[in-house]
Amino acid sequence: MGNVSKQKRDDLVAKIKEIRTFIAGVAQDENTESLLSYLSELEKDVRGKKFGLVFEEHCEAIDEKLETHIPVLKEEKDLFIDNGGQLNFLIEGDNLAALQLLEKTHKGDVDVIYIDPPYNTGAKDWKYDNDYVDKNDTFRHSKWLSLMEKRIIVAKKLLSPRGAFICAIDENEFPTISLLLESIFGDAYEIHYIVVVHNPGGTQGKNFSYTHEYVIFVLSKGEKIIGLQNRIDNPDIRPLRDVSTGNHLRINAKNCFYPIYVKDGEIVGFGEVCDDDFHPEAANVLREDGILEIYPIDPSGNERKWVFARQSVESIKGDLVVSFNKKRKIWDIVRHKTKFTYKTFWNDKEYNSNIFGTKLLKEIIPNCSFNFPKSLYAVKDCVNAIITSRKNPVILDFFAGSGTTGHAVLKLNTEDNSKQRRFILCTNNENNICKDVTYERIKRVIDRDGYEASLKYYRIDFIPISERLYYEYADELLLHVRELVELENGVNFVSNLEVAIVLTDDDLAEFIGNINEFEKCNKLYIGHNVLPNGEQQDTLKKARITVNVIPNYYYNELGV
C-alpha cells in the first residue's frame, strides 16, 4: 500500500492551489492579498514535518515576561561563600531566563549539562504557570514537552563541541523526552539510554514495582566522550563450580581447563586447553626450569574451571595478580583493580535514592522536606563518566532542585586532583527551595566536609523594555554587567584586590586617579566602549595590569 498520509497531504495541497488560482483570477485588493498570504502559510504547515514528536505548544508566563523585559542578574552579596578553590554559581529564578543569560556568557562553553527535570507523574510534583498539573489534565504531556523543548533548545547552544547532555527521567515521560531529544539534537549526536536501579525495594504500582529510572546521555556522534570506569573487581579466576555439575560457568567448560604458567610470582604464559583424558594429579606442577604450572584444581583434588577461556585471560594478563591463598592452600589468580567500559545497566547500592538521596539530605539539613532528591553517587558517576580535556570543566544543572549536582561536583574535585570542575546551578525559589535547600546544602557540605570551594548567589531580575528606546534603559543594564563578567570568567570583583572592573570612561579615570590604591591588582576588565588614552595605557602598563575588554555580546544595544 502507498503512503496514505502523504496522499492526504497532496490532496490538501492540490485544493489549496485551486483556491489560490480562483482568488488570483478575481479583482485584487487588500483582502485578496491577505488571503493569498494565508494560503501560503497554510501550505507551508501542510508540507511541514512529516515524522517526529507532535504536541500542542503552550505559552508560559515567563514567555510573556521575556517579550517585554530583559533578564538581568543581581547578586545577593550576603550569601557569598568565600572558601577558596573554584568559584561556583547559584542562580535563583526561572530557568528559561537563566538559560538566556547563560547563552550570553557560556555559548559553546559548557562541558556537561546534567538535569533531573520534574517527572510529570500526575501527582502534585510540578507546576505549570503556578498551577499543579494533575493526571487528569488532557494537556499534561504537551505542557511538559513545551516546557522542556524551549529550555533544551537553548541548552544545546551552551554545549561545547565535545560536551554531553545528560537527563534523568522515569517511565512517565521517557518515551516523549527520547523523541524530543532526537528532534532537537539531530543526526550530529548519538543518544544512549541507561537503566539505573535507584530503589531496590521497588515503588509499588498497580501491576509492577518500579525499581529503576533512566539516564539519557546525548553525545557528539563519532567522538570518544564516555571514559573508562574504575572499579575494584576481584573474581577469582580459579574455578567457581564443580566440573561434574558445570553450573553457572560463564563460558563453555571445555575451553576453561588449562594451566597458567607462573615464575617468581608473575604470569609468564598460558598452556593449551587440556584434552578430556588429561587429569593432572595436583593443582601445582613445578617444572625443572622453575616455572609453576597452575591448574584449576581445588585443595580436595576436584577439577574445576577457570572463569575465563584462555584467550580471554591472555587479553587481560596485565590486570591479573598471583598470590598464595594460605587458607585454601592454593595459588590464587585474581583480577585486581581494573578499568571497564560503562555498561547500560547500573546497579550499585550507592544509587539507592532513599539512602543516598533523601536520608543524606536530611543528615545535611535535618528539617528539609524536599521530595525525591537524587542519589549523590548516581549523579557523581554520570558527571565523572564524561571525558573532558579542560582542567576546569563547567558543569551546568538548570533543574538544580536540592543541589545534588553541586554536591557531586565538590566531591569529585576532592577525588580527582587533575580536574577542578566548576558548577552552575539554576532553580526557582518556590517554597524558598533555592535559599533554604539548594544554597543551604552547598554551604553546609563545604563547611562539613572541608571542600575548598566558593559560591556566588545571583537572583534573576527583570528590566522592562516595552515601549522604551534602548538609551532609556541602557544605564539600568549597565548596572548588571559585572555579574555577567563574573559568571563567564569565574572571577569575583567584590572585595577582591587582584581584579577590577570599569564600565565607563569616568570609572576608568577614577581608577587611574587612584592607581596607588590598587597595587595588588593584576587584571582590569573594561567596557567595550571604554577607550583608554595614551597616558592611561602607559599607567596601566607600568602597574603591570593586564587589560581584558568586556565583549559586546552581553547587551548589544549598549555596545559593551
Protein architecture, described:
With 560 residues, this protein is of the alpha/beta class. The chain folds into 4 domains: 4-46; 61-230 and 343-464, Rossmann fold (3-Layer(aba) Sandwich), CATH 3.40.50.150; 233-336, no CATH class; 473-549, no CATH class. It is built from 15 helices and 25 strands. It has helices spanning 4-24, 30-46, 61-68, 95-105, 140-158, 174-185, 310-315, 353-364, 376-384, 404-415, 433-449, 470-478, 481-489, 505-513, 534-542; strands spanning 69-75, 86-92, 110-115, 127-128, 131-132, 159-169, 189-197, 203-204, 209-210, 212-220, 228-231, 260-263, 266-270, 284-286, 292-294, 320-325, 330-335, 338-341, 345-346, 394-397, 422-427, 453-464, 499-502, 523-526, 546-549. Strand 23, helix 14 (505-513) and strand 24 (523-526) form a beta-alpha-beta unit. 29% of the residues are buried.
Helix/strand/pairing category: alpha/beta
Computed over alpha carbons, the radius of gyration is: 32 Å
Distance between the termini: 61 Å
* Residue fraction in strands: 15-25%
Q: What would CATH call the homologous superfamily of the largest domain?
A: Vaccinia Virus protein VP39
Number of helices: 15
Helix content: 25-40%
Architecture (CATH level 2) name of the largest domain: 3-Layer(aba) Sandwich
Strand numbers in spatial order across the main sheet: 1-22-2-21-20-3-6-10-7-19
Helix-strand layout with pairing:
Layout: H1 4-24, H2 30-46, H3 61-68, E1 69-75, E2 86-92, H4 95-105, E3 110-115, E4 127-128, E5 131-132, H5 140-158, E6 159-169, H6 174-185, E7 189-197, E8 203-204, E9 209-210, E10 212-220, E11 228-231, E12 260-263, E13 266-270, E14 284-286, E15 292-294, H7 310-315, E16 320-325, E17 330-335, E18 338-341, E19 345-346, H8 353-364, H9 376-384, E20 394-397, H10 404-415, E21 422-427, H11 433-449, E22 453-464, H12 470-478, H13 481-489, E23 499-502, H14 505-513, E24 523-526, H15 534-542, E25 546-549
Parallel strand pairs: 2-21, 2-22, 3-6, 3-20, 7-19, 20-21, 23-24, 24-25
Antiparallel strand pairs: 1-22, 4-5, 6-10, 7-10, 8-9, 11-18, 12-13, 12-15, 14-15, 16-17
